[in-house]
């Protein structure tokens, strides 16, 4: 049973239900096509994380975006 966890930063413009549906369908289609996995048992979870809870190179994404 394949399990895909997509983690994205929570933005000022939220991800729409339609975009989430497309991500879930796309990830599922990829596993079915590339790895011949069973669509019915493929799990996809989308997690939206606050930018303060995501760090790169010792800095939060919030700090990085303020600098750019």
TrEMBL record:
Domain 4-oxalocrotonate tautomerase-like: 2-63
UniProt keyword Transcription regulation present: no
EC code: 5.3.2.-
Entries under SUPFAM superfamilies matching the protein: Tautomerase/MIF
Enzyme class at the top of the EC tree: isomerase
GO molecular function: isomerase activity
InterPro entries: 4-OT, 4-OT-like_dom, Tautomerase/MIF_sf
Positions of the catalytic residues: 2 (proton acceptor)
Keyword field: Isomerase
Family that this chain belongs to: Belongs to the 4-oxalocrotonate tautomerase family.
Identification of the protein by name: Tautomerase
Organism the protein comes from: Helicobacter felis (strain ATCC 49179 / CCUG 28539 / NCTC 12436 / CS1)
């Amino acid at each position: 049973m394949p399990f895909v966890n997509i983690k994205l930063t929570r933005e000022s413009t939220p991800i729409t239900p339609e975009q989430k549906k497309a991500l879930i369908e796309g990830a599922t289609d990829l596993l079915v096509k590339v790895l011949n996995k069973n669509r019915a048992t493929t799990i996809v979870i989308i997690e939206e994380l606050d930018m303060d809870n995501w760090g790169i190179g010792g800095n939060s994404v919030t700090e990085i975006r303020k600098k750019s």
